[in-house]
Design goal:
Layout lengths: L7 H12 L4 H12 L5 E2 L7 E2 L2 E2 L9 H15 L4 E5 H4 L7 H8 L3 E6 L18 H21 L3 E4 L4 E2 L7 H18 L5 E5 L9 E2 L4 H11 L3 E6 L9 H10 L3 E6 L16 H18 L6 E4 L8 H20 L3 H9 L3 H13 L3 H11 L5 H6 L3 H16 L9
Parallel strand pairs: 1-4, 4-5, 6-8, 8-10, 10-11, 11-12
Antiparallel strand pairs: 2-3, 7-9
Helix pairs in contact: 2-11, 2-14, 3-11, 6-7, 7-8, 9-10, 10-11, 11-13, 12-13
The chain binds alpha-D-psicofuranose and manganese (II) ion (MN).
Length: 419
């Protein structure tokens, strides 16, 4: 921020922050970092999704990739921090890669981000994809990963994001070590096909759809697989993919320390992989994760080079609103983590003053960072209150009208259920 010729507004912001015990230099540091902070949205977060019991549809939900890119464009236009969109290959390119998608994305002011193969929906994957005992099915799965790497090249994406639904439902159903070996072999082959500068992210999840075990079940398994695959493979932490009570920030700190953290899928949860919007249940949990990132960046003076991504399904919230709400929450929690008084924390830790140490974290978590966020948004040229501005923009009403007509023309009906 300017030191001379400051606008009245900036002076007011500095005053407000001082009242909150923060110097302008510290606030400027936070603002600078937030100016570089970006988070990727998932294309599937704009489409109708549901639970395994059915889907509840929304008129304004995206029908196709063009709608998803339009929604992503508007998310970015209102927040300034979501310039890329993750795609799921078979959901977004059901007829194969279409170069028109690149033009559509450009027209909406966004780019294609991480490429996610779909290795979970086809009937052939009932007993696994890369860990299936049938070599022909393993070949199909690998082919799809290799095709996805080719799509990465065509859309200039850096990130291949791998989530495997592979797993089993009953003890005795399969050989655990054999499946580990099959997964390792597939990842190695995929890694060999990747270009320089591309990253392979290996996600984990303790259960679902496999209820006895999944082959990629925790951060340790992803770590072992990524190490075996090669130097461009890293671990992807989806915050919803942990058993209750798990200390996620400790996992994050370890992965950072091991240089094996590749990125995040952010969402919140109450019970399992609920895919709720970030901060809906436990914003302090997300703050503690950002605190680990901020601590590392403070120590090294460098931004952590990882992929920040949202992975949510909005079953009852309007899609774009849920995404804007999430992006703003993530930005706010990152801001709070950047406000932790690192010197005070180090002093308290050195003195074994547990209360002071914890209070240092809580002070940052409880800090009202609105003036900082407003300054960042002003500099980015986006509304100071993105969610409010979007809600009064009329976008949703228009999208609902157009998409209702599109569904009708395409003969698409509503939800789905078991029977
Ligand atoms: C699986 O639960 C997951 O978290 C993976 O990241 C998928 O790509 C995503 O959700 C899609 O629903
Ligand atoms: Mn995920």
């Amino acid at each position: 921020m300017q030191t001379s010729g400051e606008s009245n507004r900036e002076k007011r912001m500095a005053r407000k922050l001082k009242l909150r015990g923060m110097s302008s230099a510290a606030a400027n540091h936070v603002i600078d970092r937030l100016m570089r902070f970006r988070i990727e949205v998932p294309s599937w977060g704009y489409a109708d999704t549901g639970t395994r019991f059915g889907k509840f549809t929304q008129d304004a939900a995206a029908v196709d990739i063009a709608d998803k890119l339009a929604d992503a464009g508007v998310t970015h236009a209102f927040t300034g921090i979501c310039p890329t969109v993750a795609v799921h290959v078979l959901w977004d390119f059901p007829h194969g890669f279409d170069p028109a998608v690149l033009r559509l994305a450009k027209a909406q002011g966004v780019r294609i981000g991480s490429i996610n193969p779909n290795l979970f929906q086809d009937q052939c994957y009932k007993y696994g994809s890369v860990t299936n005992r049938d070599p022909n099915i393993r070949k199909l799965a690998l082919r799809h990963i290799l095709d996805s790497i080719e799509i990465m090249r065509r859309v200039h994406s850096r990130v291949l994001s791998l989530w495997f639904a592979d797993g089993v439902n009953y003890p005795g159903q399969a050989d655990i070590r054999q499946r580990k070996a099959l997964a390792t072999a597939a990842l190695k082959t995929a890694h060999e096909a990747m270009g320089r500068g591309q990253v392979m992210l290996v996600e984990y999840k303790p259960f679902e759809p496999g209820t006895y075990f999944t082959d990629f079940f925790d951060w340790g398994s992803s770590y072992v697989f990524a190490k075996a695959a090669g130097p461009q493979a890293k671990v992807l932490v989806d915050t919803g993919h942990h058993l209750p009570g798990c200390n996620i920030e400790q996992i994050v700190a370890w992965l950072i320390d091991e240089k094996m953290l590749g990125g995040f899928h952010f969402n919140d949860r109450k019970y399992a992989d609920d895919d709720l919007t970030v901060g809906a249940i436990d914003p302090y949990q997300a703050f503690r994760i950002f605190n680990e990132i901020a601590a590392y960046e403070h120590e090294t003076g460098k931004d952590l080079d990882i992929a920040y991504m949202i992975d949510q399904s909005h079953n009852v919230k309007p899609k774009v609103q849920a995404m804007i709400q999430t992006a703003c929450t993530v930005q706010q929690l990152m801001a709070k983590a950047l406000c932790v008084d690192r010197k005070a924390l180090a002093r308290a830790q050195a003195a074994e003053d547990t209360i002071a140490a914890e209070e240092t974290l809580r002070a940052a978590f409880n800090l009202d960072v609105t003036p900082i966020l407003e300054a960042v948004r002003k500099a980015m040229g986006v509304p100071e209150s993105p969610l409010e501005a979007f809600r009064s923009s009329g976008y949703e009403r228009q999208a609902a009208r157009k998409r209702r007509a599109k569904r009708k023309a395409l003969g698409l009906s509503g939800g789905s259920t078991y029977a």
